[in-house]
Amino acid sequence: MTSFIEALHTKGPNPERADKLGLYAFLVGDWDMDTVGHAPDGTKHTGRGEIHAGWVLEGRAIQDVWIVPARDARRAGPPGPFDFYGTTLRVYDPGLDAWHIIWMDGMKPLFRRQLGRASGADIVQLGDIDGGGKSRWRFTEITPNSFHWLGERSSDDTSWTLLTEYYARRR
Length: 171
Hints:
By secondary structure, the protein is mainly beta. It contains 1 helix and 11 strands, in the order H-E-E-E-E-E-E-E-E-E-E-E. It has a single domain, classed as Lipocalin (Beta Barrel).
């Protein structure tokens, strides 16, 4: 009998679309990260987190889990304003030549839906925010062993406010 994990996970991208599935392939694996949350009053909140990502759905998608603070640094009490324990499902859509991004944070709860595409050497994900405004999540400075991730918000599609940054290192 096949287990849930065996049915969900696979070792690599589906060969039918392997050429297009490479955009987020760098993410597969285990990561540690330093976190910076930018509060509206200008103060910064720092911490540590972790990311785990793998191929799922017969290699047609990548799923990840982002955790802040890292599990070995969790504390008692209610979560802080920059804490989360969520998952992203990233599925390539050949009709759009883009990735559907669905983020869920079960701690808050918070849900985001975005479209992700390459933008030069970076990856940019754009979506709407409930109640108005736009979200922009960017992967920058991507190497095989590190990346910088920025979470931003805009109310006018022109100016962006930096909310969070993550500096990830492969384990």
